[in-house]
């Protein structure tokens, strides 16, 4: 009898602990459910419907027609090509630049705290403000052309040429985002035990060999994180492309990206269901590339 009562008491205690645990988790569950799960479910619903936004809102079920339309839409392929080109150039460049800056600041240079502040300023500056500044630099009467004219070189229409318009955005974002990843690398570098480098020196390894055989392997998980976050961020390029082209993706669709195409589908063409389908295409691409990255960097 005593054993039965003991089990019942233990069972009530476990239930009480479980309820307490769920109560502590409830705020997080509510936030995730409201701002993550419900929007995803709603996006799935929209992607399977044609939505009439003018007048009374109506939903017409079209199945997977929005997804099959993606294959036939030339704008989607142009946006994918531009976005892929942007990601392929910006992510490696900003990662390498961030690592170089972090190694430099970790090497004991003078006034390194001031250099950290100076390097990090572009990261805390508004993206819209940076874009407007670079538009002024790239303008036909801007700083860059003034400099070229001053040194006797021909000027150029940097914003109006489809061959270089996207590259101008790339250059701006490499310069403005690398300092953020520099801070991550710098924190990781400062956690590497000095004894490893001392052991490498005793074995006759020079600075470059220590960097290749000690620093790079230890930073592999950090590099995976930096590259993953960089890929996700670059695939979501929108504001710079929107401001550069005034929302058109021009010149000649040279700065059209996937997220800008989603914006145009919703706010210009009023195609909510089609925009949801494009968003799922973007999510699928990001997931696939992240899994590939994990295969090579994640160990």
> What is the end-to-end distance?
55 Å
CATH topology heading of the largest domain: MetI-like fold
Assign the CATH architecture of the largest domain.
Orthogonal Bundle
List the secondary-structure elements in sequence, H or E.
HEEHHHHHHHHHHHH
Strands side by side in the biggest sheet = 1-2
Overall mean confidence score, pLDDT:
86
Q: By helix and strand content, what is the structural category?
A: mainly alpha
What does this structure look like?
This protein has two domains: about 1-45; about 70-295, MetI-like fold, CATH 1.10.3720. α1 (about 1-45) crosses α13 and α10 (about 220-235) runs antiparallel to α13. The protein has helices spanning about 1-45, 65-70, 75-105, 110-125, 125-140, 145-150, 165-190, 195-200, 205-220, 220-235, 240-245, 260-265, 270-295, and strands at about 50, 60. It has a two-stranded antiparallel sheet. A hairpin with a 5-residue loop joins β1 (about 50) and β2. The chain is about 75% helix and about 5% strand. About 25% of the residues are buried. The protein has 13 helices and two strands; from the N terminus they run αββαααααααααααα. The chain starts with a helix and ends with a helix. It is an all-alpha fold.
Summarize the structure.
The chain contains 13 helices and two strands, in the order H-E-E-H-H-H-H-H-H-H-H-H-H-H-H.
What is the topology?
Layout: H1 2-47, E1 49-52, E2 58-61, H2 65-72, H3 74-105, H4 112-124, H5 127-138, H6 143-150, H7 165-190, H8 194-202, H9 207-218, H10 220-235, H11 239-245, H12 258-267, H13 272-297
Antiparallel strand pairs: 1-2
Helix pairs in contact: 1-13, 2-13, 3-7, 3-10, 4-7, 5-7, 5-11, 10-13, 12-13
């Amino acid at each position: 009898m005593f054993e039965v009562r003991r089990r019942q008491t233990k069972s009530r205690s476990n239930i009480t602990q479980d309820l307490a645990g769920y109560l502590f988790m409830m705020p997080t569950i509510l936030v995730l459910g409201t701002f993550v799960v419900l929007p995803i479910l709603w996006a799935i619903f929209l992607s399977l419907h044609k939505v009439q936004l003018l007048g009374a809102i109506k939903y017409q079920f079209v199945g997977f027609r929005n997804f099959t339309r993606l294959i036939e839409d030339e704008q989607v392929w142009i946006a994918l090509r531009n976005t892929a080109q942007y990601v392929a150039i910006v992510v490696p460049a900003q990662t390498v630049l961030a690592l170089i800056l972090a190694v430099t600041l970790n090497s004991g240079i003078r006034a390194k705290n001031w250099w950290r502040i100076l390097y990090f300023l572009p990261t805390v500056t508004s993206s819209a403000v940076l874009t407007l500044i670079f538009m002024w630099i790239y303008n036909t009467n801007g700083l860059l052309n003034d400099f070229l004219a001053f040194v006797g070189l021909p000027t150029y229409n940097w914003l109006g040429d489809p061959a270089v318009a996207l590259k101008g955005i790339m250059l701006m974002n490499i310069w403005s985002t690398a300092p953020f990843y520099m801070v991550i690398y710098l924190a990781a570098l400062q956690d590497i035990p000095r004894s490893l480098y001392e052991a490498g020196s005793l074995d006759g390894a020079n600075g470059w060999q220590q960097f290749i055989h000690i620093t790079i392997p230890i930073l592999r998980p950090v590099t995976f994180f930096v590259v993953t976050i960089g890929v996700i961020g670059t695939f979501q390029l929108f504001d710079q492309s929107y401001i550069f082209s005034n929302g058109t993706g021009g010149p000649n669709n040279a700065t059209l990206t996937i997220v800008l195409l989603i914006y145009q589908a919703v706010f210009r063409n009023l195609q909510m269901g089609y925009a949801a389908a494009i968003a799922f295409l973007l999510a699928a691409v990001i997931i696939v590339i992240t899994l590939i990255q994990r295969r090579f960097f994640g160990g």
